[in-house]
Automatic annotation (TrEMBL):
Pfam family name, one: Pyr_redox_3
Coiled coil: none
Transmembrane portions of the chain: none
Name this polypeptide is given: FAD-dependent oxidoreductase
The species this protein was found in: Blastococcus jejuensis
């Protein structure tokens, strides 16, 4: 295909100022195109800030985009050295904020929420002349609601704000809304050892999900239990085998990701965590005093009730928010909500984070809507296999294509770390029951997650991931 950016002087709108969104802006700028980044949060990296206390399992070299690094170089910025993975807060402060500053306030607009995307003068049903019309992006900011016209649109808004429900059928469990209203449901990555400590200390917590977000929360709770008597931990998963999360151990090239699963397996084997496999949540019964909830679910043996729970950490993953794209002609896989050509490449039934093949503008295109792309964690829909370095490759390819350089757009410039996190069984080693520095880890495949059945998902790094939702 030729370039999808007509020479109209209109910007390419990028939705979301996370790592992939800002990398997209850097690539567009380097290609001579005009990016306009619209971020709903009050600051860049808004979703990542919510799990800033979490240390990713992704080293800096897999996070920093090469073109973004070139843009930053004249400012004196250098990529942090070493293999110690950064926390979410460190990524925001050490990379996203400097990158946004280098791009400039005229490029990155915060507190600007995209409400909808369409074509100027055409609704979704109109075909004739569609590709020649600019996009219309409706935005709400401090000045009210306005429309921005764009030559192309790249949606890197992530999935952090659209969490999967606890209910096993993809619907909220009966009574889930009541438990949430009572404050008994928490997000996938609470700050167990910091700001949220009092909520969990000396109390009974149920973690639901089988992704890296669940693992991080469980490890933090286990450390809290060693420090605070009476702290109880229950971990429920829909599947019957947690081997995939226990991971590849020493065979994982992302060392901290391998250790994440090994440590969790050790805690379960020791009895520090009560593990309930094969549990599908159907109902939540909030106590009359609102202080606890009984979580009811189905197992192979029949109904099971987990009683006296003071907090439920719903690490059940994320799904893309497609509401603002209702007037866009999306070409999505029916199961994963990912672009049709991308879906078989990322299907978690066959792929882990490191086995997803490189892909770019061709796999991410929507044939009925040329010039529109969903990238980053949101591009993966409900699949938990995203890595931030994959998102950087996505936007590199798209920017090259929009600039008319399809030779560069089709060139593969991506090397992924090997991962055994989804498929390799390793022996449980009780000696690895705690992190060396005591900090939880989140993968940038993440932003925050739970596997296909429960979804993160992050890996990441995410994100959720720490995926993240987090990762767009």
């Amino acid at each position: 295909m030729s370039t999808h950016v007509p020479q109209t002087g209109l910007p390419v709108v990028v939705i979301g100022a996370g790592p992939v969104g800002l990398a997209a802006a850097a690539h567009l700028s380097a290609r001579g195109l005009t990016p306009l980044v619209l971020e709903a949060g009050e600051a860049v990296g808004a979703a990542m800030r919510e799990w800033g206390h979490i240390r990713t399992f992704t080293p800096w070299r897999y996070i920093v985009d090469a073109t973004a690094e070139k843009l930053l170089a004249p400012t004196g910025w250098t990529q942090p050295a070493g293999d110690v993975p950064p926390t979410g807060a460190e990524i925001v402060a050490g990379y996203l904020e400097p990158l946004a500053a280098a791009l400039g306030d005229d490029v990155v607009r915060t507190a600007a929420r995209v409400l909808a995307v369409s074509r100027a003068g055409l609704d979704k049903s109109r075909t004739l002349g569609r590709a020649e019309r600019p996009f219309l992006v409706r935005v709400q900011d401090t000045n009210g609601v306005s429309d921005v016209r764009a030559a192309a649109v790249i949606d890197a808004s992530g999935t952090w704000a659209q969490r999967n429900p606890l209910g096993a059928a993809g619907l909220p469990a009966i009574g889930e809304a009541d438990a949430q209203a009572a404050g008994l449901l928490v997000g996938p990555l609470p700050d167990v050892l910091g700001a949220d400590r009092a909520r969990f200390a000396g109390r009974r917590t149920l973690v639901v999900g089988m992704g890296h977000s669940a693992a991080n929360t469980l490890l933090s709770l286990a450390r809290l239990a060693r420090e605070e008597p009476g702290t109880e931990i229950v971990w429920a998963i829909r599947g019957t085998d947690a081997t995939r999360l226990y991971g590849g151990g020493d065979s994982d090239q992302l060392r901290d990701r391998g250790k994440l699963g090994t440590d969790l397996g050790s805690l379960v084997a020791s009895g520090a965590i009560e593990h309930v496999p094969g549990f599908s949540v159907t109902r939540l019964e909030t106590a009359d005093d609102g202080d606890s909830v009984t979580v009811v679910g189905e197992t192979a043996e029949g109904e099971l009730r987990i009683e006296g729970v003071h907090a439920v950490a719903a690490a059940t993953g994320f799904r893309p928010d497609l509401g603002m794209l209702a007037e866009v002609r999306l070409d999505l896989d029916a199961g994963l909500d990912a672009p049709t050509r991308l879906a078989p490449l990322i299907d978690p039934a066959f792929h882990s984070c490191g086995t997803v093949p490189p892909h770019g503008h061709r796999e991410l295109a929507h044939d009925g809507e040329p010039g529109f792309y969903v990238v980053g964690m949101k591009a993966y829909g409900r699949a938990p296999t995203f890595l931030i370095t994959t998102g950087n490759e996505q936007v590199r390819s798209i920017a090259a294509h929009l600039a008319g350089d399809d030779a560069a757009a089709d060139e593969v410039q991506l090397v992924l770390p090997e991962t055994g996190v989804c498929s390799v069984r390793t022996p449980v080693d009780a000696a690895h029951a705690a992190w060396a520095d005591g900090s939880p880890r989140l993968g940038f495949a993440t932003g925050g997650g739970g596997g296909r059945a429960a979804e993160l998902e992050i890996t990441a790094v995410g994100a959720p991931v720490a995926g993240a939702a987090c990762c767009g």
